[in-house]
Design a protein that fits this description.
Keywords: Cell membrane, Membrane, Transmembrane, Transmembrane helix
Structural class: mainly alpha
Number of domains: 1
GO cellular component, one term: plasma membrane
Pfam family, one: TauE
Oligomer: single chain
Helix content: over 70%
Main location: membrane
Order of helices and strands: HHHHHHHHHHH
Membrane topology: Multi-pass membrane protein
Length: 297
């Protein structure tokens, strides 16, 4: 029961992050499952099965809040489903010894990317003309493949790319990427079920992730409207980097692990402090010039 509650809490946190950023459900929850001792293929399969429910709940929540562009959902999601099925098949055919460092390296890279992306590169909005299908379709294919093989990656690949164009409203990027993830979760799950037919899945783990994620989905869809995305991104990215560094240190038996942890924690705290300062500065610059002046009688 304790393990079930821990995985449910992990699913809650993962969906809270994902629903607010449009990324990192798979990265966060797969990191938790790998730390608990599941094999990479089973961890990714469990996450994607749970994502069928969490992404549906998240999509409905974002739709109700007006955060979804259905054109983006379809043009991005259908090629993404193809990539996810291929990625699930590829990961299932790797040995556990080869797959665990591979997946942790992908997760660490994605976590580092999320951290740096939100700490150092503020979003620039341009004319909201929409994104071309010439970008959406190949982006979906690549993001879907990375998502299935790395246990996460749909959001970290798709969301920053679409945000960087500045052509879609940020909240609709987050909502559309989250909603299209339903297609990726279904395709990846089919790939894993077919390829892992002889390997039992832990349905209790899937249920725990699903319950935690479904509870968090409406709250996350609301938070995306009020909480600075940069702050959530830096917080989640640092946690993912720290956890997967631990896995790689154990896999390669690296010396002086404490030094690695200390450097990462210090850099993470510095990034959080820098991000908070930037958010405060940006908000001050957005105030009208006379907003800070006292009212005169």
């Amino acid at each position: 029961m304790q393990t079930f509650l821990i995985f449910a809490l992990g699913g809650f946190i993962a969906q809270l992050v994902d629903g607010s950023l449009g990324m990192a459900y798979g990265v966060t929850s797969t990191t938790i499952l790998l730390t608990a001792g599941l094999t990479p293929a089973v961890a990714s399969a469990s996450v994607h099965l749970a994502e069928i429910g969490t992404s549906a709940a998240s999509g409905i929540s974002h739709w109700k809040f007006g955060n979804v562009d259905w054109r983006v959902v379809l043009i991005l999601g259908v090629p993404g489903a193809v990539g996810a099925f291929l990625g699930a098949t590829a990961l299932s055919n790797l040995s556990t010894e080869a797959a665990e460092p591979w997946m942790s390296a992908i997760l660490l890279t994605l976590g580092l990317y999320v951290l740096l992306r939100f700490a150092l590169r503020p979003l620039r909005r341009r004319q909201l003309t929409g994104v071309s299908s010439k970008l959406l379709a190949p982006l979906g294919l690549v993001a879907g493949f990375v998502d299935a093989t790395g246990g996460g990656g749909w959001g970290p690949v798709a969301t920053p790319t679409l945000l960087s164009t500045g052509k879609v409203e940020p909240r609709k990027v987050v909502g559309s990427v989250d909603t299209s993830e339903f297609l990726i979760a279904v395709a990846a799950s089919l790939g894993f079920i077919i390829s892992l037919a002889d390997e039992p899945l832990s349905w209790a783990t899937v249920a725990a992730l699903l319950i935690g994620g479904v509870i968090a989905a409406p709250l996350a869809a609301y938070l995306v409207r009020i909480v600075p995305m940069r702050l959530i991104g830096v917080g989640a990215g640092g946690l993912i980097v720290l956890t997967n560094t631990r896995t790689l240190i154990k896999a390669f038996d690296l010396p002086a692990p404490g030094v690695f942890y200390a450097v990462i924690v210090l850099a993470w705290v510095a990034a959080l402090a820098y991000t908070v300062r930037q958010i405060v500065r940006d908000r001050r610059e957005e105030l009208p010039e006379d907003a800070s002046e006292p009212v005169r009688s």
